[in-house]
Every structure is written in C-alpha cells, then in structure tokens.
Write a structure and sequence with these properties.
Strand content: under 5%
Structural class: mainly alpha
Order of helices and strands: HHHHHEEHE
Number of helices: 6
Bound molecules: zinc ion
Distance between the termini: 27 Å
CATH topology of the largest domain: Helix Hairpins
Strand order of the largest sheet: 2-1-3
CATH class of the largest domain: Mainly Alpha
Shape: rod-shaped
Helix content: over 70%
Number of strands: 3
Number of domains: 2
Oligomer: single chain
Length: 244
C-alpha cells in the first residue's frame, strides 16, 4: 500500500483515539461524583444517626440555656419575696418562683430525654463504626483506582496527540490538507472509510468493481463518490488453522 495511505490510516486511528479519550476524560467528573453518591447512599443511615446525635446535642445546649434563664428568674422571684411588704407582692413572688422551678424541672426532664437520644445514637454509631470504616476504605480505593485510570487516560491522550502531530508533519501537505478538509466536513470527523465487500463501510454505498480493485491496490488516494471519505482496504485477518 502506498505509504501515504497508511499514514492517513494512522492519522485516522490517532484522531479516533483522541476523540474517544476526550469523551472519556470529559465524563470523569460525572463518573467520579457517581462513586461518591453511591457511598452517600450506602451511608445514609449512618448520616441519619449522626444528625440525630448532633440534633440531641444542640437541643440539650438550648435546654441548658433555658434552665439558666429560669434559674435567674427564680432567683429574682426569691429576692422579690424577701423584699415583699404586701401580701399580694408576697403571693406574686411565690407564684413566679414556683413557675420558674416548674419550668426548670420540665427542661431537666427534656434534657434527660435528649441525653438518652444522644447516647443511643452514639452507641449505634460505635457499633457500626467498622462497617462505615469498611465503606470508607472501599470508597477511597475506588476513587484512587478511578483517579489513576483518569491519569492514564490523560497520558494516553497526550501520547495520541503527539503521535498525531508526528504523522501530520510527515504527511505530504496535499494529503494533510485533503484529510483536514474531509474530516472538517464530516460530522463525526472520520475522514477514512474502509472498503469491504464491494461497499464503503462508512456510508454503505456500493463501489464499482473497478474502484474496489483500485482501492485494493492502494496505489492512489480514492474517495467515496457518496460520502467523500478516503477509501482504504484492510485485508481480512483470517485465523490460521492450527498445525498448518
Ligand atoms: Zn462512503
């Protein structure tokens, strides 16, 4: 086959590789996020437990602040009681102190409830810690493998680009121009088409026997009348019979 034709095929292969690698690289963030999402789905119950524990912690802090306020209210009522001169002042102070202490008692009960919720959540989290740890290790291993794979793709892309550059530079100007012109006009950017079984494998248009024979000889650059791609012939690789 004419050297230029095999260079064009090499160019086409490089371009196909580049497009495939670019598509893979573009989809990396989405696929990586999918791995993380799956981890989040699998640890959903754990996060619900953590949220319950944290909510109990904050609720307890809020109740303690309430108790602090009610204690001040009770102390104020006690002072009013000491200073009371009239029976109605006396009664009001006692009522106020009682109300404050009832509130304190109610808040204390609520604190106990929150402590129980907190302890229960903590206990479950502790029990499930090994399970979470396994999931985390699994996630990290998967992300690591994924990132390595992504890096490999990136390296392959750079290699493919360098290879393409080299082929492009070696190709006669007229050939590279022809290739670029066809590739830019065709939607998928594939400028080469295999001719097989008397047809163009890109557009499936039948090729006249003479064209097929010329393509098979590979001595000149022939384009498909229908899709304008450069035709090439790839001899079929037949498996060698064993023992022959
Ligand atoms: Zn065609």
């Amino acid at each position: 086959m004419k050297a230029e034709l095999s260079q064009l095929i090499a160019l086409q292969n490089a371009d196909t590789d580049i497009r495939r690698l670019q598509a893979e690289i573009e989809s990396i963030p989405e696929r990586r996020a999918e791995i993380e999402k799956e981890f989040e789905r699998r640890t959903f119950e754990i996060r619900a437990l953590e949220e319950r524990r944290d909510a109990a912690f904050h609720e307890r802090a809020r109740l303690e602040k309430e108790i602090f306020d009610q204690k001040q209210r009770a102390e104020r009522a006690d002072r009013n009681l000491m200073a009371a001169k009239k029976p109605d002042e006396y009664t009001a102070a006692i009522r106020e102190a009682d109300a404050a202490r009832k509130q304190i008692s109610a808040f204390e009960t609520q604190i106990l409830e929150q402590m129980e919720i907190f302890d229960q959540a903590e206990k479950e989290l502790k029990e499930r810690a090994p399970e979470v740890e396994n999931l985390r290790v699994d996630l990290e291993a998967r992300l690591k493998a994924f990132d390595d794979e992504a890096q490999t793709r990136q390296n392959q892309l750079e290699q493919a680009r360098a290879g393409r550059e080299q082929v492009m530079n070696e190709l006669p100007k007229a050939m590279s121009m022809l290739y670029k012109r066809i590739a830019s006009r065709i939607r998928d950017g594939v400028a080469m088409a295999e001719a097989r079984n008397g047809a163009c494998m890109a557009c499936y248009m039948s090729l006249r026997p003479q064209i097929m024979a010329d393509v098979r000889r590979g001595e000149e650059v022939i384009t498909c009348d229908n899709c304008n791609r450069i035709l090439y012939y790839a001899p079929e690789k037949k498996a060698q019979p064993v023992g022959v």
